[in-house]
């Protein structure tokens, strides 16, 4: 009975996750703002995800901030009243705000990986010559030579440790920079940690042109925490994958008659592999669709700029030609325009 209740709960969670998997598409008018709102607990991570789909310019200002209203607000009217108070300067706790500009047509270039050379060979010492010379010296000289050798080795060990530490720091910085690079076709994401209970909002503000965008706001409590690979809250797609994994783990060969346990385990492992492959394909398809949209819009903008440039050149050429014709006709007609 417990297993059946658990399966029912997992299936309901799976259906709810499927219903929430698609990000919201919003149309943002010129200089207008569209927002999503979520009630967040203190210490909870929230991720904002934005992808610009279309517009005369794939550029917008986005920000995530809060708390904009106390946690006791439960109605839309109360929320709007608190937002108006927040906009006039009232604060409902320690405010967290992150604001940045999204430009889908100009991606960051991936930084080249720094070449990290292993300098351990530079600290190798040839001890054979020292030992040969030491045999010809007195016992006192041998003692001094041993002390000098120990001091050299100690300094070499310190130098090697410093070199390893520098390489480790450079590698860590390289990984941090690489983690900030967004691949083409991926949405722009930003994660904050709430410091005070209350309502938070993720907003997108249009520029001088109307734009269409996919906007998403994900809470760690709803999706199972932070993804270690990205540093952001798990996506709904990954939550679906995890729920399906749990459903597979809950199934057992003992529930059905005539099924061998080994065959069942082999089948379950194959299903896991197929699900991982399907999840990767879906992710790549979504990324490819976004990439094609960006390329299409960028090409349209480039074509429009070329058309406007050609039109301006044509108008300028016609104006110069007309002025030349007018000037020459005046000159031949005996005008004093050029005879002075």
TrEMBL record:
InterPro entries noted in UniProt: Emp24-like (IPR015720), GOLD_dom (IPR009038)
All copies of domain GOLD, residue ranges: 23-333
Chief location category: membrane
Highest rank taxon of the organism: Eukaryota
Chain residue ranges for the region called Disordered: 109-183
Subcellular location: Membrane
Keywords: Membrane, Signal, Transmembrane, Transmembrane helix
Pfam families per the UniProt record, alphabetical: EMP24_GP25L
Annotated TM spans: 306-328
Gene Ontology cellular component annotations, sorted alphabetically: membrane
Compositionally biased region (Acidic residues): 112-134
Membrane association type: Single-pass type I membrane protein
Composition-biased stretches (Basic and acidic residues): 135-153, 173-183
Annotated signal sequence range: 1-21
Family named by the database record: Belongs to the EMP24/GP25L family.
PANTHER family for the chain: TRANSMEMBRANE EMP24 DOMAIN-CONTAINING PROTEIN
Name of the protein this chain belongs to: GOLD domain-containing protein
Species for this entry: Grammatophora oceanica
């Amino acid at each position: 009975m417990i297993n059946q209740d658990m399966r029912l709960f997992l299936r309901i969670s799976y259906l709810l996750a499927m219903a929430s998997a698609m990000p919201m598409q919003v149309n943002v008018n010129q200089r207008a703002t569209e927002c999503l709102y979520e009630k967040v607990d203190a210490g909870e991570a929230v991720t904002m995800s934005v992808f610009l789909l279309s517009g005369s310019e794939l550029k917008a200002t986005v920000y995530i901030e809060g708390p904009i209203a106390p946690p006791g607000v439960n109605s839309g009217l109360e929320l709007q009243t608190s937002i108006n108070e927040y906009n006039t300067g009232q604060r409902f706790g320690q405010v967290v705000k992150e604001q940045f500009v999204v430009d889908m047509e100009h991606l960051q270039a991936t930084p080249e990986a720094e070449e990290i050379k292993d300098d351990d060979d530079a600290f190798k010492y040839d001890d054979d010559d020292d030992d040969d010379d030491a045999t010809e010296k007195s016992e006192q000289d041998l003692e001094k030579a041993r002390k000098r050798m120990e001091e050299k080795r100690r300094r070499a060990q310190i130098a090697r440790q410093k070199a390893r530490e520098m390489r480790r720091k450079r590698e860590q910085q390289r990984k941090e920079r690489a983690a900030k690079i967004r691949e083409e076709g991926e949405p722009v994401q930003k994660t904050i940690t709430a410091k005070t209970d209350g309502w938070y909002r993720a907003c997108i503000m249009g520029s001088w042109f109307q734009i269409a965008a996919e906007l998403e706001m994900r809470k760690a409590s709803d999706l199972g925490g932070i993804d270690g690979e990205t540093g952001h809250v798990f996506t709904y797609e990954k939550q679906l994958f995890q729920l399906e994994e749990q459903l597979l783990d809950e199934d057992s060969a003992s529930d059905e008659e005539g099924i061998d346990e080994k065959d069942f385990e082999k089948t379950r492992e194959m299903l896991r592999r197929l699900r991982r492959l399907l999840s990767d394909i879906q992710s790549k398809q979504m990324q490819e669709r976004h990439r094609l949209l960006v390329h299409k819009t960028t090409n349209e903008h480039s074509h429009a700029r070329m058309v406007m440039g050609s039109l301006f050149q044509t108008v300028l050429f016609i104006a110069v030609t007309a002025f030349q014709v007018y000037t020459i006709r005046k000159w031949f007609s005996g005008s004093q325009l050029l005879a002075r």
